[in-house]
Specification:
alpha/beta; Aspartate Aminotransferase, domain 1; Aspartate Aminotransferase, domain 2; seven-stranded mixed β-sheet
Length: 405
């Protein structure tokens, strides 16, 4: 009797870490180099230039040997002083974690109301900022895409709310789960500081994170009194290359990042973003079909607020989400993202970002649909067929364009 179906290659559909291109892995597999030498300096310069292009900024870029939470801390300590007031926009799990970190650092945190199913209410945000007549709020902190809830906030609208209120607060954006998967134009949108990390849309292993800062942010840094020796931007902008990383550079990780940034440049950000949009549309089409039953629904209510990088699926009981993940893992070698926070037992997540092509997405969707059938859950059928239709429409359009040339 067959014990299990799973065999061969595993499809990782978690929202970080994400699959890494083989050539990027080969780039990492190199000997160490002199961290004081010209090769290391040029490697850093290339990585910074590539990151500026992806962030959409002419500002300064800092490369941190840390995950995204490390860069959260670096931003807080480099921009603010003890007791400074911050407005952190709630929505999903990660804004709350950022707020906890800021509180532990001695900052005065106000959490702007939000929940796990809707993006930030920008009209109410503008009203709150107008109420702050003394400009006590020094920073507005927003998460572009919360990977737990899969909410995508409208960063240009948030920036306009700050501008319309004539408020001088710094706008700081966590773009960890959105960079290189969705439009992000730091300078054009009026974002003062943006944060990202290596293990999502940038197609690298975990361990590096990045901060982009404009002139307004660098000026605020000069007056910050929470600075710590490791994170201090003043030291990291020093002449010595050694100071850029406050110590030994993570050379192998930088080599991998350099190659991933080269892949991004070669494909072009415009195509990358459109590819993510189409693949996300296919995933969303499948979920729309499954949600015709009584068991499955989108966590994020409004289609316009769903991210292009990850989709959180809400299951209407406390056990089926884990059963779906178990069958996908044990029978199909498909690893789905687990639920997080108070929705841990009722959600699972499908990631569709970075080095993740349509065929892999269809495999993930087929595994999920087979799991729904195996569990005899009351769901709509034909989700995979709906996803195929979305992708086929793109293929037909592309074929028509080629024939007209």
């Amino acid at each position: 009797m067959l014990k299990k179906l799973s065999w061969g290659h595993t499809i990782l559909s978690t929202p970080g870490p994400t699959p890494i291109p083989d050539l990027t892995l080969h780039a990492v597999h190199q000997q160490a180099i002199d961290i004081y030498g010209q090769d290391a300096i040029e490697l850093t310069d290339r990585c910074k230039a590539g990151l500026r292009a992806v962030f959409g900024t002419s500002g300064e870029v800092f490369i941190n040997i840390a995950n995204g939470h490390g860069s959260w801390e670096s931003v807080l300590t480099n921009l603010f002083g003890k007791g400074d007031k911050l407005l952190i926009l709630a929505g999903g799990r990660f804004p709350g974690l950022w707020a906890e970190m800021a509180t532990k650092l001695g900052l005065d945190v106000e959490v702007f109301p939000g929940d796990w199913r809707y993006a930030t209410d920008v009209a109410q945000l503008e009203l709150r900022l107008r109420q702050d007549r003394d400009h006590a709020i020094r920073g507005v902190l927003a998460v572009h895409v919360d990977t737990a809830a899969s909410i995508a906030n409208d960063i240009p609208a948030i920036s306009r709310a700050v501008a319309n209120a004539s408020h001088p607060a710094l706008l700081v954006v966590d773009a960890i789960a959105s960079l290189a998967t969705a439009p992000f134009e730091m300078d054009q949108w009026g974002v003062d500081v943006a944060i990202s990390a290596s293990q999502k849309g940038l197609m690298m292993s975990p361990g590096l994170s990045f901060v982009a800062a404009n002139a307004k942010a660098l000026d605020a840094h000069r007056h910050a009194d929470l600075r710590t020796p490791y994170w201090d931007w003043t030291d990291r902008l020093g002449i010595e290359h050694y100071k850029v990383y406050c110590g030994t550079a993570a050379i192998q990780s930088l080599l991998g990042l350099d190659h991933s940034l080269h892949l991004i440049q070669s494909e072009g950000l415009e195509n990358i973003i459109e590819r993510h949009r189409i693949v996300a549309s296919a995933v969303h089409a499948a979920i729309e079909e499954w949600s015709k039953g009584s068991m499955i629904e989108f966590n994020v209510k409004h289609a316009s607020e769903r991210s292009a990088s990850v989709t959180t699926i809400l299951v209407n009981d406390n056990s089926s989400a884990q059963k779906i993940r178990d069958i996908c893992r044990d029978q199909f070698n498909v690893i789905l993202g687990s639920g997080m926070g108070h929705l841990k037992a009722r959600t699972f997540r499908i990631a569709h970002m970075g080095y993740f092509n349509p065929a892999a997405v269809l495999g993930v969707l087929a595994a999920v649909e087979a799991s729904l059938v195996a569990l005899d859950l009351p769901c709509g059928q034909g989700g995979v067929a709906r996803a195929i239709a979305v992708l086929a429409k793109t293929c037909r359009a592309d074929t028509t364009d080629q024939n007209s040339m």
